[in-house]
Write a structure and sequence with these properties.
With 305 residues, the chain is mostly beta strands. The chain folds into 2 domains: 131 residues, Beta Barrel (Thrombin, subunit H), CATH 2.40.10.170; 136 residues, tm1086 (SG structure) fold, CATH 2.102.30. Helices cover 9% and strands 30% of the residues. It is built from 5 helices and 18 strands. It has a 6-stranded antiparallel beta barrel with strand order 1-5-8-7-6-9. The chain starts with 14 loop residues before the first strand and ends in a 15-residue tail after the last helix.
């Protein structure tokens, strides 16, 4: 199990970063891959009915972000303090509301959306209904610099030690890291974000315009929060193709009708030499691992004050 894998977590710094609800964006008319014009709900704001564990496809929306979207402030999304918020907050970190009617309630970081530079957070449904656009959060950021001691050639990004310990990782007889994943994605399907030099505070998109291929590979069944393997994707120092490399990512936002876009995948683990071995598991979803989203139970400690 994952707890038998030695990490450097005791030496990691816990630091506080803050953010506030990001207003929803309206892009106006956009042209789809089929050449039609649409105007749809997009990124930002508070989304009440799309949660981790829900399908990544089928929503009448563009890049929908489940739960609540945050940034450190208005304007300059690529500069500090927003850069620090996105760089240091990790999937699985605890988030605490520090203003508003639900002050004191907690949530969980579930993703970082590159381009718009949003931090995505899951809250219990009753908290979502109390939130408004001025509410602020404090994130106990913990995980930047996380390493698997026995696997120095595997890099980890944006992954909290708590989530790592729940992912069911194991070392096989050949000294490779076995990672449960919901699906494997071939390199030719990865789109918007390829070529970026940013591997630590954003995502890149699965292209979904060829739906026949998605169905053939079973990718049309992807859910928000699914852990997936990206074949031949080397994301150690950027985002690019390398035969034999493997990256592990989390589906953090929904589908898009724009050419070259689709569900966003945030990389949390990568190896350029193929020492990661994906194993298909229907349970490989961070909402299930953390007991949040559609897998939240009444007794989940994160939903309490």
């Amino acid at each position: 199990m994952a707890r038998s894998l030695k990490t450097n977590e005791k030496g990691l710094v816990r630091t506080a970063v803050q953010g506030q609800v990001v207003p929803p964006r309206c892009y106006g008319w956009e042209v789809t891959a089929e050449g039609t014009a649409v105007m749809l709900p997009a990124v930002g704001g508070i989304t009440y009915n799309v949660l981790l564990g829900d399908p990544a496809f089928g929503w009448v929306a563009d890049h929908v972000e489940p739960g609540v979207s945050f940034a450190a402030g208005k304007g300059k999304p690529d500069e500090n303090p927003n850069r620090a918020l996105l760089a240091y907050a990790c999937i699985g970190n605890t988030v605490k509301l520090i203003s508003g009617p639900a002050e004191g309630r907690c949530g969980v970081v579930t993703g970082k959306h590159g381009g718009v530079e949003h931090l995505i957070v899951d809250f219990p449904p009753d908290v979502l209904r109390k939130l408004h656009g001025d509410d602020r959060i404090l994130v106990e950021a913990w995980g930047t610099g996380l390493e698997l001691v026995e696997f120095p050639d595997i890099r980890l990004y944006g992954l909290s030690p708590e989530l790592l310990n729940r992912m069911g990782l194991r070392k096989d007889s050949q000294g490779r890291l076995v990672v449960p994943v919901a699906a494997q994605i071939p390199p030719e399907l990865m789109g918007s974000g390829v070529g970026s030099n940013d591997s630590f505070k954003g995502d890149y998109d699965l292209q979904t315009q060829d739906y026949t291929t998605l169905e053939r590979l079973g990718l049309h069944r992807l859910r928000l929060g699914d852990v997936v393997a990206l074949q031949d994707q080397d994301t150690r120092w950027g985002v690019g193709y390398r035969r034999g490399a493997i990256s592990i990512g989390v589906v953090i936002h929904g589908d898009s009708r724009l050419s070259g876009h689709g569900p966003g995948i945030q990389v949390v683990m990568t190896c350029g030499e193929g020492r990661i071995v994906p194993r298909i598991s229907a349970d490989a979803n961070i909402a299930r691992y953390l007991g949040i989203g559609r897998f939240r139970s009444r007794g989940n400690r994160r939903s309490r004050t």
